[in-house]
Amino acid sequence: MKERHENRILKHRCRRWIGHAVVIALAIATLASLPKSVSAQGTQSLPLGLSQIQRLIQLQVPDATVAGEIRRRGLSFAPGKDTSETLRRAGAGRDTLQAIDELRPMLDEARKEIPPILLKIYQLLDQGNPQAARQFLSSEIADDSGKLDSICRPFTYRSHYIEAIVERPGHMFEVRAHALFRPFDEKAQLFTFHPNQGTFLLVQKSDADDDWFGPAKETAIQIVRNFIYAAKAQRVDVLGDLVGSGLDASQFTNNACWREALPRVTEVNDAHAALDSLKGLKIKVTVNMTVSTRVFTGVQAYFWVDRVSDQYKIVAASPMHSPTFILQPAILFNDSPTSCRGLDNAFFGVIEGSELENDTLKRFSLPTSKEKENQEVYHVGGDVTAPVAASRFPEASCTDAGRRTHPRGEVDLRFVVDANGFVKDIEVTKSLEPSLDESAIRALQSLTFRPGTRLGVPVAVQMGVKTEFSCN
User: CATH fold of 213-360, please?
Assistant: First the structure.
């Protein structure tokens, strides 16, 4: 009985071995089924055709073996996305499909498919839904909350644009993007995508380093040089072409501080990308200045350059203080001071154009302040959803006047959350006491929102809030 059982096992194994041998033999025959004019030695190194790969799949040749042959021998045809779909339907395994993708030209495909994937990643993370975003992320990113927050924190995303998508070795696709968060927190981000099972997966993210702005920095430096030459020559007509809207070029030659600063400018020293609280990412250009015929790197003037429409312009500027070259503090251009000397350790603040905010909004294809003023205001209900606050409503502070006259009570406010998620048009509908009313308004102004929508499109929505005071 035992011998009969062992014989059955042996026969089963023999049949299985014979089956494997047949499959291997057929695979070798398929791989060798090339024109007879080709030598036997060359046959084993010629590229594979699509029909050969399909035959190997039909014969159930191991996935790793098929993939290895593809990588070793290459392909006799240019594969497209339809090739991967055809082989997937034929039963190709993951390794085979990956090997095909590695040889498939994908740059045009990447430029078409990655932008909507990146938009979806931003939107899902902004909604606080990282689980839904996992399908577009590598596990290394999806499982790291710090990396997810570095892409986008919930309720902060406003808009983005892609500057370039380029291919790197190993079928990696580098995406250079500018993302705008609230309030005007702009980041230049560098993403790396890799093809994965018919789509593209985000596998790496970093903030772009300063070298990324190389061409723009060189442009900014040249603009500042031209500006300095024109300002020293009193060529206001030329200055007007170099500054952005909202910045009056004539004031650089009329203002006493600038008249004193410009002759001291000797050379452009450096340029780098910097936020500097100027409503978006700018290129900051530093120039050296002379003091008593000597050059000190600590005596500098700064210029900020940004892309306005299709050109780079100077949008803000500031000559800086030093122990020997002193500028009167907190002077605005319109003040036109007569002297800039005599104050130790003073500081002349940044001079910025009035259109900085609008320039940034235009760059991100967002409505400007004037355009937002003309937006129709909706009320919550039906197909209009309510805005959602990014954080809890802050507690309004009691004031001394409030404690004396109205220790308890309520302030009602009506306001609009615009299509960008900002609070505007605040109106007090129930007053308690002027200083308490103001406290309630300040608390409301500190909030940002994910905007309300109508049929899925962000719109301006009117809201109301009650602020309780207990100032005993």
Answer: Nuclear Transport Factor 2; Chain: A, (3.10.450)
Whether the predicted model's global pTM rises above the 0.70 cut? no
Is the CB of residue 388 less than 8 Å from the CB of residue 450?
Answer: yes
Which are the contacts of 420, defined by CB distance < 8 A and separation ≥ 6? Answer: 158, 361, 366, 367, 372, 451, 458
Selected from 3.30.465.60, 3.40.50.360, 3.10.20.30, 3.30.2420.10, the CATH number assigned to the domain covering 373-470 reads: 3.30.2420.10
User: CA-to-CA distance for 454 and 472, rounded, in angstroms?
Assistant: 43
CATH 3.10.450.50 residue ranges of the chain are: 107-208
Task: Report the phi/psi class of residue 395: left, alpha or beta, with left for phi > 0 and alpha for psi in -120 to 50.
Answer: beta
Which position has the higher pLDDT, 276 or 455?
A: 455
Question: Which option is the CATH number for 107-208: 3.60.10.10, 3.40.50.300, 3.40.50.620, 3.10.450.50?
Answer: 3.10.450.50
In contact, 195 and 212? CB cutoff 8 Å: no
Two tokens, residue 52: 């050969």
Q: What is the pLDDT of residues 433-445, one digit of tens each?
A: 888 888 888 888 7
pLDDT recorded at residue 38: 35
pLDDT band for 13, please (50, 70, 90 cuts).
low
How far apart CA 395 and CA 399 sit, in angstroms, is 13
Q: Which of 365, 241, 235, 231 is nearest to 314 (CA)?
A: 241
Token pair listed for 192: 């790396």
* Residues 22-68: tens digit of each pLDDT: 445 544 554 454 443 333 444 556 888 888 999 898 888 999 999 99
Q: What pLDDT shows up at residue 138? A: 93
The whole-angstrom separation of Cα 16 and Cα 405 is: 95
